[in-house]
Design brief:
- By secondary structure, this protein is of the alpha+beta class.
- It has one domain (2-147).
- The protein contains six helices and six strands; from the N terminus they run ααααββααββββ.
- A two-stranded antiparallel ribbon has the order 1-4. A two-stranded parallel sheet has the order 2-5. Strands 3-6 form a two-stranded antiparallel ribbon.
- The mean pLDDT is 81.
């Protein structure tokens, strides 16, 4: 049950770290009346238990997630992606863009928000994200513009807000 819960949490972008897994295992053991005396004395399962748990579940691994705001996590869905591609094709057909008229702008935010802790996720997941608060810290925005001929544009300073 714990393994399924860990995987479910990682899929909804709320991965669990070792401390949270310690607490969940201890709480489950207490509910099932199978809590060793040592755990009751300490108030949690030991690090050795977590190591054994991870060894017995080789498809779980400790990973460093990429911070993702809640707005981005909920906005990137099948409906929005399909709509984007539909609108893009419609504009491309209407305006008949040539390759020398196509640019790609990538906006990257570098934030001062504390990075997410390492969490346990299912192995084989190429990219893992963790929802964090986007309201704290300062954001520095970097724009990169690339022409469809693979040339980059020189950086242009933005006026202060």
């Amino acid at each position: 049950m714990l393994e399924k819960y860990i995987i479910k949490c990682s899929r909804i972008k709320y991965g669990l770290n070792y401390t949270e897994i310690h607490q969940l295992a201890f709480d489950d053991a207490k509910k099932l009346d199978s809590c060793p005396q040592k755990w009751q004395t300490v108030g949690t399962v030991g690090l050795e238990w977590v190591k054994c748990f991870m060894k017995h579940h080789p498809h779980l691994s400790l990973r460093k997630p990429e911070n993702t705001s809640l707005a981005r996590a909920t906005g990137s869905n099948q409906h929005n992606v399909t709509k984007f591609h539909h609108d893009y094709k419609e504009l491309h057909v209407h305006f008949k863009f040539t390759s020398d008229q196509i640019y790609n702008l990538n906006e990257t935010g570098v934030t001062t928000v504390v990075p997410a802790p390492h969490v346990v996720v299912q192995t084989g997941v190429q990219q893992f994200r963790q929802v964090v608060s986007a309201e704290k810290g300062q954001l520095i925005t970097v724009y990169t513009i690339i022409h469809s001929t693979e040339n980059t544009l020189s950086p242009v300073p933005l006026p202060p807000c």
